[in-house]
Design brief:
Chain A is of the alpha+beta class. Chain A has three domains: 8-126, OB fold (Dihydrolipoamide Acetyltransferase, E2P), CATH 2.40.50.100; 134-252, no CATH class; 288-489, Chloramphenicol acetyltransferase-like domain (Chloramphenicol Acetyltransferase, 2-Layer Sandwich), CATH 3.30.559.10. Chain A is built from 14 helices and 18 strands. In chain A, the strands form four sheets. In chain A, strands 9, 10, 13, 15, 16, 17 and 18 form a seven-stranded mixed beta sheet that branches. In chain A, strands 7-2-4-5-14 form a five-stranded mixed beta sheet. A four-stranded antiparallel beta sheet of chain A has the order 1-8-6-3. In chain A, strand 17 and strand 18 (449-463) form a beta hairpin. Chain A is elongated and about 85 Å long. By secondary structure, chain B is an alpha/beta fold. Chain B has two domains: 2-179, Rossmann fold (3-Layer(aba) Sandwich); 194-320, Rossmann fold (3-Layer(aba) Sandwich), CATH 3.40.50.920. Chain B has a seven-stranded mixed beta sheet, sandwiched between helices. In chain B, strands 9-11-10-13-14 form a five-stranded mixed beta sheet, with helices on both faces. Classes of the chains: A alpha+beta, B alpha/beta.
Chain lengths: 491, 323
Amino acid sequence: MVEAAAGEQLFTMPSLGADMEAGRLVAWKVGVGDAVKRGDIVAEVETEKGLIEVEVFADGVVRELLVEPGAKVPVGTALARIGGAAESGAAAGGEAETDGAGAGGAARVDVAYAPAAAPGSAPGEAIGEPVESVGETAYGAAPGKTKLDGAPSTPAARREAREKQLDVGGVRGSGSHGRVGLEDVRGAEGDAGGARVASAAATGARGEGSAAEAGRVRATPVARRRAEERGVDLGAVEGSGRDGVILLADVEKAPVGVTGPAKTKAASPAEAMRAAIGAAMARSKREIPHYYLTHTIDLGAAMSWLEARNADRPPTERVVPAALLVKATALALKKVPELNAWWTGSAAPPKAEVNVGVAISLRGGGLVAPAIPGTDQLGLDALMAAMSDVVERARRGALRASEMGSATVTVTSLGDRGVESVIPVIIPPQVAIVGFGTPSERPWVVDGEVVPRTLVTASVAGDHRVTDGHHGARLLARIEKLLQKPEKLDS
Amino acid sequence: MSSYRDAIRSALRQLMQEDERVFLMGEDVGNYGGAYAVSKGLLEEFGPERIRDTPLAESGFVGAGIGAALGGMRPIVEVMTVNFSLLALDQVVNNAATMRHMSGGQFEVPLVVRMATGGGKQIAAQHSHSLENWFAHVPGIKCLAPATVQDARDMVLQAVADPDPVFVFEHQLLYGMTGELDEEAAPADPWRAIVRRPGEDVTLIGWAGTLGKCLEAAEALAKEGVEAEVVDLRCLRPIDFPTLAASVTKTHRAVIVDEGWKTGGLAGELMAGLMERVFYELDGPIRRVCTAEVPIPYAKHMEDHALPTVERVVAAAKESLRG
């Protein structure tokens, strides 16, 4: 395990969404000796969701780059050492291969990942060679150090192997489901082949603190509960507590859905993304008791106003109806804050800021919903620019880490698909999602007359653990009201 | 600024000025001014009818207090230390605590018993124990343990206002402590615990004599980057588990600092109550820092070693971070 020295911080592979297990470092944007400050983009990381620019959260000087571009590593793996801001990076400069940052590193990136930079290419093409064994990377924390391939292993076994600096290639586990226990590792020590079948008798002599050998993972009550909530397999989590006990913090930084090293099938990026979406949606449908409401809204006033507003503007500065809908949703959420929240396992305290995640379908298949920070605060032009920017970057695979996990609610609008309405599925840990069908001209009764009007069917799915249909109804009613005074949305 | 001792006296004086049914009795509360000088000057102010010296007979004068309370008075009985209160346990457990229930609600016992508790002053085993848990065990009475100057005043006022027997445990090391006292302030609900210092990483639970140690430990931990939340239990019966549980739900770890002995003590009760309520929030076993299982020694170095120390609290908190 890489540990930070005094005065240093480790820059680690971030979790860019609750369903991310591992990421591939595509390129370094900095080199050893470079000064960085919080918010600087220091690396590009490729996930199932595409290429993402990753910000650093510390100020300082890059002392050492620990992972080569191209390597796929689990979430939480140390990628670089960042020294204190006041210290010089010069001392460390000589020993790092990526010294000078620019030419060498960038060249490698260009060769391997050139398509990623090409706007408009499908994600499937953009993402280069995917994936070695997900399970293996999830296990073998630092490459080159001890790893246990092929079977689940207990925390105590991994700790023993790590401490003894063993490289046990094929230890055969004697526990249930072939789980590798402490005795198995001890037995493998000094055995060149590294494989040995531990006899049942050998496990008889275990002392206190090695309950893990019996196949029971030692984890604290809250760690166990959180693992269940998040779909984390405790057998695949390294415990940092005394005697290798798994603590809450270990679970929270563990990859979701890893079911042990048996999961070795290489997946294409498109498959991986599909699997990630599947995992998130399956969890949503499994855990969240959804309620659904729909409401037809007269967009007549909004469309006329928008048409007038757009009339004397060049096409690049025009605002599309979707921006109005997003803005109306953001403002409406300020009045129904219960729906703008994250489920924390027992409650969902409302979030102070409204960051609407905009669902964007990707041309190569798949879906992302990056957040637009402070959506309710943006004027229509600013919001339109933000939406265009995020759509463009999503399609070329250049979303930022901070956009991937910060949405407080999602809006899905199937405007260009021509369907009448959408009954959406909540993206955990959010507690609501708002959908809009295609605005279209339909018959509508105004003052006793049937007249053609532009209508949109709005819908909301809410988490019944947190709110009731009453809240959803208030939200839709509020959106409708806001859309009748479109000029008020432009501030 | 006022001392803890002055704060209690301020409450006693106000109570006696406002309600002629209130009187104070106990060993040496009159001419001597109280073993810890709490009632100094009150005899001159209110006279021997209302500031009554008693014989050295706890069972007798606590019993007399119960009788006076049944008869409509509002007696405040001072017992010199919790060690001596054992002589009055029969009156407490069999009479004070039971009257309301055994009379079908016809009689109430609005009695207040104040007593010093705790060690640290080298007055040896028979004057230094913390036996609050003996009282906190008994249904029918309430137990308060003020740890601040403000609580010292407020809790005596609220104890007298309560229609049932209330026991106030005053840690003997606190009498000289000074702090802010607002005599006009609306008192905090005496039956609820209070978070004295917010933190995210571990909950330190203390009361009376151990609250200060918890706060000091929290300061030391903060220097090492550990943010401890300090909860002042304040009321030992009934125990405010919702506040404790909320804190542990936030921090997932707890250290209970109890000057009583570990075996059969309040710390164990708090652990069990938390385990029943928030087991699935715990990120490791709850820890206890208690007094060594010996009669409190007289020798200073031995007494210091026997009582909970800031260092032991810090060590237990750090240990809890590792599960």
